[in-house]
Amino acid sequence: MKTPLVMAMILAGTAALAHGGVQNADVMNRMMGMSELAKQMKVIGTMAKGATPFDAEAANAALARMAEEASYIPALFETEADDPKSEALPLIWQDFGTFTTRAAELERLTRDLSGTVATQADLRPVMQQVGKACSACHGTFRE
Ligand code: HEC
Question: Which residues contact residue 95 at a Cβ distance below 8 angstroms, ignoring those fewer than 6 apart?
C-alpha cells in the first residue's frame, strides 16, 4: 500500500504548487474550489484505473461533493478579481451568463450521475462525461 500514499503526497504537492504565491484572496478561494473538484475527480479516476479498490458509495459521494462544489462557482467568480497567477480570462465577466450556465451544467450532470455508479465499469463513462463538462468551461474561459 506504499504507492497510493506516495501518489497522494505528490498530487497534494502539485495542488499546493498550482496556487502557491497567489496574493488575491478571491482568486485563491476560487482556485481552492477548483482544486476540490479536481480532488473528487481523482477519487473516481484512481478507482477507474484500479489504483484504489472500487467503492460505489465513495464514487457516488465524490459526484455529490462535485455537484455541491459546482454550485459555488458563480459566487466564487462573482467578483472580477485578478492575480498574476490567475488563468481566468476577462471573458468570464463579459459573458457571466454563459459562464454560470457552464457551472450549472456541471452541477446538474454530477447530481444526476451521483447514485448511478454501481460497478467499476460505470466509472470510465462517468469520467468522460464529467471531464467534458470541465473542458466545456476551461476551453472558453481559462487561459
Ligand atoms: C464554469 C466554468 C468552470 C467549470 C465548469 C470548471 N472550471 Fe476549473 N477553472 C475555471 C477557471 C476560470 C479557472 C481559472 C481560475 C483562475 O486561475 O483564476 C479554473 C481552474 C481550474 C484548476 C486550477 C486551479 C489552480 O489552483 O490554479 C483546476 C485544477 C480545475 N479548474 C479543475 C476543474 C475540474 C476538475 C472541473 C470539472 C469537474 C472544472 N475545473 C470545472 C473554470 C471552470
Answer: none
- Nearest residue to 114 (alpha-carbon basis) of 129, 136, 134: 129
Q: Taking the model in full, what pTM does it have?
A: 0.90
Whose C-alpha lies nearest to ligand 1, atom 1? 103
Q: Among candidates 91, 72, 92, which has minimal Cα distance to 30?
A: 72
What CATH number does the domain located at 2-141 have? 1.20.120.10
Please choose, from the candidates 51, 47, 74, the residue with its C-alpha nearest in 3D space to the C-alpha of residue 61. Answer: 47
CB 108, CB 35: distance < 8 Å: no
Whose alpha carbon is nearest atom 30 of ligand 1? Answer: 34
Task: Give the model confidence (pLDDT) of 92-110 as tens digits.
Answer: 999 999 999 999 999 999 9
Q: Is 113 in the pocket of ligand 1 (CB under 6 A)?
A: no
Nearest residue (by CA) to ligand 1, atom 24, is 31
pLDDT band (50, 70, 90) for residue 16:
low
Q: Is the CB of 44 under 6 A from ligand 1?
A: no
CA 22 – CA 44 distance, rounded (Å): 28
